[in-house]
Amino acid sequence: MKKHLFGFLFMMFNVVVSCTANTNANNTILGTATTKTIYDFSMKDIDGNDVSLSKYKGKIVVIVNTASQCGLVGQFAEIEDFYKKYKDKGVVVLGFPANNFLGQEPLSNAEIKSFCAKNYGVTFPMFSKISVKGNDIDPLYKYLVNKDENGVLDAPVKWNYQKFIIDRQGKVVTSISPRTTVNDVEFLQNIEDLLK
Length: 196
Prior knowledge:
Layout (H helix, E strand, L loop, with lengths): L1 H28 L12 E3 L5 E3 L7 E7 L8 H12 L4 E7 L11 H12 L18 H7 L1 H4 L12 E4 L5 E5 L8 H11 L1
Parallel strand pairs: 3-4
Antiparallel strand pairs: 1-2, 3-5, 5-6
């Protein structure tokens, strides 16, 4: 009797393990392996308030690392115009100041907020200064730049104003180089494709 019970339990264990393994393999093959999304992160806005990125569920999100003293700072005006044009279509821009490149963001959060409003009339959400590369990289950016985490691409931040486009499900679609502006065909085509 004990042998039969042991045999039955052993057989059931193998069935369960086999089914679980097959389900995981099928999910990976079909590209439905569970991955994180930006909604798993909470960040501090420019005023230091906690903001869960799940607030942006259902929207197309453009994440950009900014710097007030960078030669590409003029992109602030273009990004603001883009935001105003597309926000009613379900697109939001999230700005993340970072001081990772030649000390080009030396300002405090309060100074950054004032600089953006005064010089470029920025109304899109700005967040507190973070690190976008290196040993102290913020967990959000670690997710954005590593295929092992986002399941789509490896895209280390090369300079200020690199853009990440996120779909309505909170997943990374692509990364756009710093010098490619929000007015360039490459960038706009990605947005228009997601709006279809």
